[in-house]
Write a structure and sequence with these properties.
124 residues; 48% strand; globular
Length: 124
């Protein structure tokens, strides 16, 4: 069975950092692009970052460029991380990890697999 499990969310003050982890099983990251997608209540889901081993591409939304870094575990090859630095209150959202076959996409409806989200709250 395909499983994705996001963890690492929490409450952090503005300017702080969090590291999200997406543990995957049931498929190989070699053939799936992995994204972190966030959702604020009342708003549409937004692709924050994506990485694809197939074409070596990495994507960051303009709102997080220079602050967030997506990476994968070269040892286990089944975990994807999102290092979030210089967090802002507007980063508050539920963060999901999701997989799309081969290439990164910004089309939310095209994602093949989703994990449960983890809440990130940035507040003083």
């Amino acid at each position: 069975d395909v499983q994705l499990q996001a963890s690492g969310g929490g409450l952090v003050q503005p300017g702080g950092s969090l590291r999200l982890t997406c543990a995957t099983s049931g498929f190989t990251l070699d053939y799936y692009a992995m994204s972190w997608i966030r959702q604020v209540p009342g708003k549409e889901r937004e692709v924050v970052s994506c990485t694809s081993k197939s074409d070596g591409s990495t994507y960051y939304a303009d709102s997080v460029k220079g602050r967030f870094t997506i990476s994968s575990d070269s040892n286990t090859e089944n975990e994807v991380f999102l290092q979030m630095n210089s967090l802002k209150p507007e980063d508050t959202a539920v963060y999901y990890c999701a997989a799309h076959a081969v290439f990164c996409t910004l089309q939310i409806s095209e994602y093949d697999y989703w994990g449960l989200g983890t809440q990130v709250t940035v507040s003083s």
